[in-house]
Amino acid sequence: MTDAIALANRLNRECECAATDLPALRQQLDLVESHLHLFAHVPVFVAKEHAREMQRVISAVDAASRLPVFRQQVLANAPGIAQHSPPNRGVFFGFDFHIAADGPKLIEINTNAGGALLNIEMQRAQLACCTQATDFLRMEPTAESRAQAIVEMFRQEWRLARGAEPLQTIGIVDDSPGEQYLFPEFLLFKSLFEAQGIRALIVDARDLSVDSDSLVHDGQRIDLVYNRCTDFYFADAAHAALAEAYRRDLAVITPHPFAHALYSNKDNLVLLSDAAMLRSMGAADADIEILTRAIPRTLRITQPEQRWWDERKQWFFKPSSGFGSRGAYRGDKITRRAFGDVMRGNYIAQQIAPPSERQRGAMAACFKLDVRNYVYDGVTQLMAARLFQGQTTNFRTAGGGFAPVYQLA
């Protein structure tokens, strides 16, 4: 164990001086009486070598996703709408890691990861009195520069699809957006885009329509859709306009169905954690070593049922098409009834890689944590942690929620 890893582990057990000014942050975001568990009070410490390793894993996944055989195999099982490959990459990929004793473990990849702008706002409310935290904060990009990089990412998506044509209107689209837990972030995006001279609308997906050669909302043309819908392939009737606009290239949609099929379908982890399969697809030896070390072995759930029940304590069961930990079960906690649902459903099994922990002082409550890398075009833009208790990440744990990540050299 290196000095940086040992220091990160110690600070995650003991550090109480670095903190987020939660009252100021909630006041700033108008969340004084709501979202009490959206932000954690304390940061999470990560060794820089672990941060570099996470980037190596992300780069190896990106390299694998470009292999023709990998694409052919992944897309063969994807819906027809995902076969359309637009020129833009897709914003806010989320690579979620647990930090194990032998290094980071990639648990999941998302292609519409929420929370990036909330975590940038949280940066403005950081307090620190220890040397490590102060030194890290001094070296970090400012919240303003990170927000500007977010705008540039959306502009790049537009340029990839439309070239020099001016970007005039962005639609921030979800189902019943005002009822979404992360609706405060939609407001932040609206303000951010408008400050850059881009008209921004927060739109319910069912209120979109196609008018001749445009995607419109209430008579207003939408140039680019920031897609927050979790119907990843626009299969719901409420998303018919999005589906048509995507197929006909009437608006730039980001993230999009192709990106989800290529990166986020959990069945892809079966391929990415199988050395023989990666080798047969032409992956580089170095990438195979990185991926199989960092991604817990993942398998499709097949019969016989008794085998999986006998081995259940080794596995975490996840629905192939699920999101947000819905329908996911730790094998050592699963009930017979839930196990029956797993066997009847479309599930994968991933070897359990326990999360690391964060606590405030020896007598304080202990939280599990994962580290999310917000990624664009294969490069990490921002890291944040999520503190939780129970089986899976949530925003219902008192003292839990998003936490800043401080990297230690």
Mean pLDDT: 92
Total domains = 2
The biggest sheet amounts to: 7 strands, mixed
Going by helix content, strand content and strand pairing, the class is alpha+beta
Distance separating the two termini? 13 Å
Looking at how many chains there are and whether they match, the oligomeric state comes to single chain
Low-confidence stretches: none
SS strand fraction? 15-25%
Counting DSSP E segments of at least 2 residues, the number of strands comes to 20
Helical content band: 25-40%
Rg, nearest Å: 21 Å
Shape: globular
Number of helices: 15
Please give the structural blueprint.
Elements: H1 3-14, E1 19-20, H2 22-28, E2 44-47, H3 48-65, H4 68-76, E3 93-100, E4 103-110, H5 116-123, E5 126-127, H6 131-139, H7 143-162, E6 169-174, H8 183-195, E7 199-204, E8 208-211, E9 214-217, E10 220-222, E11 224-227, H9 240-248, E12 252-254, H10 257-264, H11 268-272, H12 275-280, H13 285-294, E13 298-300, H14 305-310, E14 315-319, E15 329-330, H15 336-344, E16 347-351, E17 356-359, E18 366-376, E19 379-388, E20 401-408
Parallel strand pairs: 2-20, 6-7, 6-11, 11-12
Antiparallel strand pairs: 1-5, 3-4, 3-18, 8-9, 9-10, 13-16, 14-15, 14-16, 17-18, 18-19, 19-20
